[in-house]
Amino acid sequence: MDNHKILDKVKGALYGVAIGDAMGAPLEFMSKEDIADKYGTVTEMIGGGWMNLEKGQTTDDTSLSLAVARGVLASPDNPIESVGREFIAWQAQRPADIGATCDGAIHKALELASDAKSPSSDDWFKAATLIADDNEGRSGGNGALMRSVYPGLFYAQEDTAVNWSVQIARMTHDDALSSHIVAVYTRLIFNFVRHSDEQEALNYLLQVIDRDLKDELPAQIKSSTWCVDTLNVALYYMLRKQSFEDILVSVVNDGDDSDTAGSVSGSLAGAMYGYSSIPTRWVEALDPEICRALDELTLKAANQLEI
Q1: Which among 15, 151, 259, 274 would be 20 to 30 A from 302, CA to CA?
Q2: Domain limits for position 95
């Protein structure tokens, strides 16, 4: 596959996170029926929602994906502590949409740290375990999955990408199923970017579902905050729709946790179909600062892959 197409797919995956986030966020917590009654079918950036967002505004899904990317770039050989510093800086901004598991793990890591500004890797993993104990094992939410796109784009070796993606997930979500779903997602991102033929990528997706997910994916399709549901809704529409736009419109109009479902679906669809497949009107609705950050991260991932 030529370098231009790989670059297009890397950029598509990164922009897919932000586009899916901004499309889905105004519909978050609404039912599919309520969306249909109020809007019909949402095909444009609309703004609003429970956070009263501007049109094209993104949420924690994008912010934390950028935080992970910056942390990986700062220390690619062992990014845990550098990613952790990004998490702490983000939490200090008091975001309205911070998830309870992430929030608790960041607070706990800071409590455990001997250096109050920079918890160690051990501090992060211990904090996540303590939070999982406190919430009686309910750390299988999609808060780790939603931020996991960059390792699959940046690292040249698949096993390395999966390892760091899972370790970064475990900083806040000490849950075996969450780690498994993050690993599968990372392999999909890694391989979609490298498959030039869309049918080849879809065949790979079917193999992954049969090999790694056949016992996990529920029959019911819904975009809840559970990591399995989030990946399930993304894969359901990936297999049934033939374009970035059709996939994302279908996902966000299902409602519920629509921003994270949109982010995960958008990154996968972007990795498969490329940035060139994303409607220009959606890109133009994003904050220019977000676009600049995504462009920079695209080039840095491409440089690492020697594109």
Answers
A1: 259
A2: 3-304
Q: In the block, which residue shows the tokens 């990154």?
A: 267
Q: Which amino acid is at 175?
A: D
Report the distance separating Cα 176 and Cα 166, nearest Å.
Answer: 10
For residue 48, give the 3-state DSSP assignment: strand
How many domains, the chain? Answer: 1
The pLDDT tens digits for 166-187 are: 999 999 999 999 999 999 999 9
- How far apart are alpha carbons 303 and 231 in whole angstroms? 29
Tokens 């030529």 appear where? 2
**Phi, psi of 53, rounded to the nearest 5 degrees:** -80, 150
Separation between Cα atoms, residue 229 and residue 206, nearest integer Å: 17
Nearest 5°: phi and psi at 91?
-60, -35
Tokens of residue 278, six digits: 């994303």
Angle of helix 3-24 relative to helix 244-252, nearest 10 degrees, comes to 20
pLDDT digits (tens, 9 = 90+) for 12-61: 999 999 999 999 999 999 999 999 999 999 999 999 999 999 999 999 99
d(CA 159, CA 1): 21
pTM above 0.70, yes or no: yes
Q: What CATH number is attached to the domain comprising 53?
A: 1.10.4080.10
301 three-state secondary structure:
helix
Give the separation between CA 298 and CA 4, rounded to whole angstroms. 12
